Amino acid sequence: MSAFTLPSASLLAQSVLSGIFVGALYGLLGLGLSLSWGLLRLINLAHFAFAFLAAYLCFQLASLGVDPLLTLVGIVPAFFALGAGLHWLMARFAITPFNSLLLTFGLMGIVEAAIQSIWTADFRKLESVYASQKFKVGALFVPVPELITLVLAVAFAAGVWAVLRFSDLGKALRAAAEDGPIAAAFGVHRQRNALLLAGTCSALVSIAGVCLALTFTLAPSQMYAWIGVVFAAVMLGGLGSAIGPLVAGTLIGVSEAVTMAVTAPSWAPIVSFTLLIVVLVLRPGKAA
Amino acid sequence: MRTPLAIVGVAVAMAFVPRLGLPAFYDSLLYLMLHWIVLATSWNILSGYTGYFSFGHGAFFGAGLYTTSTLLARFEWPFLWTLPVAAAVAAVLGTALGAVVFRVRSVRGELFALLTLAITFVVGTIVGNTPIDGGQGVSLTAVPVPQVGPTQSSTFYLLALAAATLTLLVAWAITVSRFGAGLFAIHDDEDAAEVIGVPTYRYKLTALAISCALAGAAGGIHALFLSYVTVGEVFTITVPLTVVLMSVLGGTRHWAGPAIGAVAITGLLYSFTAADNAIAGKAATGAILIAAILFMPDGILPRLQRAWRRVVPARARPAAVDASAPAAPAPRPAAPPAAAGDVVLRVTGLHKRFKGVRALAGVAVEVRRGEILGLIGPNGSGKSTFINVVSGHFAPTAGEIVFEGVALGSRAAHRIAAAGIARTYQIPRPFAHRSVLDNVALAAMFGGGIRSPREARDEAMRWLEFTGLADKADARPDDLNLHQRKFLELARALASRPRLVLLDEVLCGLTPAEIDGAVALIRRIRDQGATIVFVEHVMRAVLALSDRVVVFHHGELLAEGRAAEVMQRADVMTAYLGQAHA
Amino acid sequence: MLEVDELQVWHGAAPALWGVSLSLGAGELLSVVGPNGAGKTTLINALCGIQPARAGRIVLDGRDITHLAPHLFCAAGIAVVPEGRRLFTEMTVLENLELGSIVPAAKAQRRESLAGVLELFPALREKLASPAGELSGGQQQMVAIARALMARPRLLLLDEPSLGLSPLIVRDMFDAVRSIHALGVSVLLVEQNVAMAMALADRAYVLEEGRIVAAGVPDELLARPEIQRAYLGA
């Protein structure tokens, strides 16, 4: 068992900062998943596949000279359509929440195979103009790609929260999730809203994918590594919440980073999963 | 007895395969097929049978695998002796987990799946960070492989064959046993199962333990097969998702379903690998899973069974001997034989709150042996809640319930059922995937304490004849109309030979002729010695049946006495019809 | 303004309403009474689009709405106060009311409608920001009625509004429905509380086991053996 080492204050602060950054990515990845699970009652494992697909597409376009952030212009609408299409399929066959888990897992396998056949299993790193840029704030280093991720994560979480909270569409979505038939009796067009929401969730996760490409090295098998921790963030944050996954993700990211700074990095996964287990056992009502 | 003999026979025949001298590739392929048969079938014992889909099979498999690797590498145990220990460690881990998780009522479905997935990663991290593995993996290349078969690879093949045979026999045995019937009932409707007497917590824990033990044994064998084990290969999402895929594809409700899925998927993946196309294999696996969920959500096996049944029609059941008014079998005798007129149920100060709503506000009532007591009152006055609390579906907030001198309090519902109380549900809750006969047999087996499934079915048949459903014995509850489903509820309630029967709006929705038939039936039940408490709105039936009625109003009792008198009272008429009729 | 003609509605594999016919004039308050399981809620569900009709017709102001998609019934002018309230308990009272007026025509008048319902139910003023699930039964019933009024319906459907409420609250509900009726809204009231239903109604129907067995003016119906039998036995 590796010894506990107490890091210096600045190292600790840097760890906390990097935990915040990775937590922001957890939050952005979890945003669409949380909305889909909470409001549509569908658990979409294909989310992770879409994120990686978007990441690889960004990587490909960037290697052709396109600015990574500009790739969003094409990627976001494409994934919106993809998400809406997938939802249409699942609704057509009246898939139960549990079966949606299985079906999207199958989709994940297909996408992983496709990615591997096009880009091989080798690690790929997006070389962008942002990758080497960083700010120095006091004693802390703030890398630009991570900063972009944080900004996007906060912006979209806040934006989605505002729409859900204040707009009629948001109220319609929340009402339909609670009592579909009565919502429809008051004029809520459930099918159309559901397609809109499903498309939006996929669009959001494609943005997360671009952030992923900017900040991490890509490999097809890496897809699965994120599932556990993002699910933990989603459940801790509360299903159907926009801000929840971001807050929970940050908490998880920071505790992981601190754990890594204090002991060996390989202990990090235990943090998120133990939190998840504890939440499920002590307050399952919050998650469901 | 045919099935287990067939399984063993095939196994013995397959034991001769190594003598054929096939290239080692086939030994490995067959080994993997058998290995996955064990994993998928063992997973199915918990998840397929009870519906608690676990994503944590990797954790138990890994626990067994690392138990063996530790015993071999560190303590130099002989290989075969490590296998039972591996099974035991996995079973203990599973039971400890289940003991906590199964207590939490709302962790079912997707939540249970995620929680078990989390366990996998936690165990994996612990294993990887402690001397068990330490992150470098454990090498077992120096460990001698016992001489069970002519070659090394055939040894593993034979071990896996033995494990697979054992697993299939266990899976089959469970299906035909009382234990298995209880598991399937839990799958269909856990709360209703608990109420008819299935000890759900104990059964789920047992199924989990068996499932883990078998997975642990498979892990132990696999450790030496791999000869170099790493955390990254074992504690991942691959094992749980593959077993889910195999079982779902083959059919989760049948003992042989997962095995079929295992053989199909392993064969498919291997043919891709052999053709040097592992990537396409992964894609094909995903595509098959999607197609299976969309078009065959029940799996291959049920489809085949349905096709078989169309070709080979079911054997006709022998007709009932006496179709008219058979006598009702007598209820089980009470522990101290009691005289008619004794108080059989005494309720005092019963309160029940739901999140601020006062459903019962201090109800006190006595029910005497052999009487038929009617509970009437407007909608929402607490009648159904009363039944739910007495039968154990809900725990009371305050108050005492004493049945035949024994306080029921907050006993688990299955213990209340075993004590001699049975109830019907206002909206029938039959076990949708079991036949009508099995629905009733379940109640006989659990609430009624009959241990042999065959005897239970005979008993069930008697009750089906009593309620006029004998010719529907093999039908599914969905095929029955409302009237028949209500009578199925009744038969199920009666099959445990209760001394107190609680009926919740049995007559609602029936035509006047059907009501008359039902009233006659209920009278016959009382004539055989049962005490009956029933909730009803159909006044005609209340007047005809009840010896006494109590009137519920806003969670309290408003009046009590003989039906005809009570209904004439001014305050009762006001409660029902308002001022206009006082 | 509402004509229901030989309506047949099935519940799963069995019929729940067999050829029900009734008519409601503009501005009328019609009561439908009957025992449990008679099909009263099924009738309401069919009229607001929650359950589809198997056969028969529903005609509103001359327009056949029988096979309209569920979300279009509200725009056609029908709003429902469902049995058991069925509020959106996780949303605030105000949000519930806003949801009631989500169809464009009602949304345009949201501000006036809100002022109107708060005048009708002043007790809700302080509860606007509370989650609907935290209110008492009586308050929830008020919110449910208010939510339906926010849709500015021509026809208001009420399904057992007195269910599970204490007599005092029922009296308040009674007064509220009377006020609404006085404003000119046509009302179809389904009730097990015969007294309340008859006191309010211009005309009434008796529904038993999926069929209409009696129709007429309240005073004359109350004297009839059908009602006596249904509620007090032979």
Model regions low in confidence, pLDDT < 50 over at least 5 residues of chain A:
none
Rg calc of chain A: 19 Å
Question: Which H/E pattern describes the elements of chain A?
Answer: HHHHEEHHHHHHHH
Strand order of the largest sheet of chain A: 1-2
Relative strand content of chain A:
under 5%
Biggest interface pair, counts? A-B, 44 and 45 residues
Structure description:
The complex is a heterotrimer of chains A (288), B (582) and C (234). Chain A is 74% helix and 3% strand. By secondary structure, chain A is mainly α. Chain A has one domain (9-287): ABC transporter involved in vitamin B12 uptake, BtuC, CATH 1.10.3470. A two-stranded antiparallel ribbon of chain A has the order 1-2. In chain A, strand 1 and strand 2 form a beta hairpin. Chain A is globular and about 60 Å long. The relative contact order of chain A is 0.21. The model of chain A has no long low-confidence stretch (mean pLDDT 87). Chain B has two domains: 2-236, no CATH class; 343-581, 3-Layer(aba) Sandwich (Rossmann fold), CATH 3.40.50.300. Helices cover 56% and strands 11% of the residues of chain B. Chain B has 22 helices and twelve strands. In chain B, helix 2 crosses helix 10 (238-250). Chain B is elongated, with a radius of gyration of 29 Å. In chain B, 52% of the residues are buried. The model of chain B is unreliable at 317-326 and 334-338 (pLDDT under 50). With 234 residues, chain C is an alpha/beta fold. The mean pLDDT of chain C is 87. Chain C is globular and about 45 Å long. Helix content of chain C is 36%, strand content 26%. Chain C has helices at residues 40-47, 73-76, 93-100, 104-107, 110-120, 137-150, 167-182, 194-200, 218-222, 225-232; strands at residues 2-11, 14-24, 29-33, 55-60, 63-64, 78-81, 155-159, 186-191, 203-208, 211-216. Chain C has ten helices and ten strands. The B-C interface holds B 356-357, 378-380, 478, 481-482, 505, 508-509, 511, 537-540, 542-543, 554, 563, 567, 573, 576-581 and C 13-14, 35-37, 136-137, 160, 163-164, 166, 192-196, 198-199, 209, 222, 229-234.
